[in-house]
Amino acid sequence: MRKFSFAILLLLCTCNLAAQEILTQPQAKLLTKFRFKVYSGGVMILEARLGNIPDTLNFILDTGSGGISLDSSTCAELKISTTPSDTTITGIAGIHKVPFVFDQTLHLPGLDVNHLNFHVNDYDILSSVYGEKIDGVIGYSFLSRYIVKLDFDSTDIEVYSKGDMRYPNGSHTLRPIFTTLPIQWLHLKDARKKEFNFYFDTGAGLCFLMSEQFAKDSSILLTRRKPVITQAEGIGGRLQMRLTVIKQLKVGPYTFFNVPTYLYSDSFNVTSYPFVGGLIGNDLMRRFNMVLNYDRHEINIYPNSHYKEPFDYAYTGMGIYFENGKVMVEDIIKDSPADKAGIKVSDVIIAVSNNFSNNIMQYKNLLQVPNEKIKVVISRDHKPIIINLKTGTIN
Q1: Are 239 and 232 in contact (CB under 8 A)?
Q2: pTM exceeding 0.85
Q3: Strand partners of residue 327
Q4: Who's near 390: CB < 8 A, 6+ residues apart?
Q5: What is the tens place of the pLDDT at every residue in 29-88?
Q6: How far apart are CA 327 and CA 348, in angstroms?
């Protein structure tokens, strides 16, 4: 008979118990299901209430947020008390301290999320971009507690308890590095091939972004291609970036060609280069239905009906924002199509292609056709003017 020492028997028992624990983990249970809205660039909006406040608030669901936050003007309007802190956050326009709203309950449809500490930030710029009030951002503090399933075909979100979950047949599971933000290994090809880390950022309304320093050090971009200057917005304000394309971007087994790419001069090292080179945004990732499983360090993706939709290559050089009930032109890039057409800063856009809706997202969608002559009706000095704008292309 084979003999074992007490230590070996103990080790065998421990291993057996560990195996049993893995095999007997509970199944993930569906806690709630509700709709989300999709704004331009694939940005997702959830409606929720806070504490005892009866008003419904709009939150961006953002894997690029390391916590959860409220808009400062929302706090002022609803008389939500804030507590000063020495905590700082870094956005594309700088670093600043943020106050907090402690120990709050977020009421999602069918689910109460308790004991949340919200930092407070100014999201007026996001409200002006989308033409609707943005009251906050939901990130890691929520996503780390649950398994979240997103369906961009039906615009349904399902929230599950942690546990075993069977992913769809034919899907692919990414295994990013998880800090508070998921960091995914991507394969790129343009002037040369390159593999590198990039943030997985559903709150970014773009396809792809690289820091200028990464682009320079990697020599990834074809030198004959000339990026254009464009406007961009993010936490902290507005700034200009360069915009171009890269030949190929591969995420998991899925390859995309001629992907619109922002080049960001990262003065505050928001991207944490040289560890991370930039981010992949939701104008690309909305082409998949996905399961965000932070507990298992997994993101499961499956191509949906948007998978083969064309990218937006149109270029106008015109920055428009919703201010005081009007769609305003607030940036014009010199020698851009908008500049050549005669559009000026402070013009008010009344209509685009016979659309008089005053809806900034509809106007942006109509302007996302490259090399197209588009009629734009503006108001200047209280007089209507019809301008024929021919859009450019970055591809």
Answers
A1: yes
A2: yes
A3: 322
A4: 337, 341, 371, 372, 373, 374
A5: 999 999 999 999 999 999 999 999 999 999 999 999 999 999 999 999 999 999 999 988
A6: 6
The alpha carbon of 76 is separated from its chain's Cα centroid by a whole number of angstroms, namely 26
Please report which confidence band the pLDDT of residue 92 belongs to, taking 50, 70 and 90 as the band edges: low
Q: Is the pLDDT of residue 98 over 80?
A: yes
Burial of 3 (0-12, 13-18, 19+ CB in 10 A): exposed
Structure tokens at 289: 């239905």
Burial class (CB in 10 A: 0-12, 13-18, 19+), 382: exposed
Torsion of Cα atoms, 128 then 131 then 135 then 141, to 10°: -90
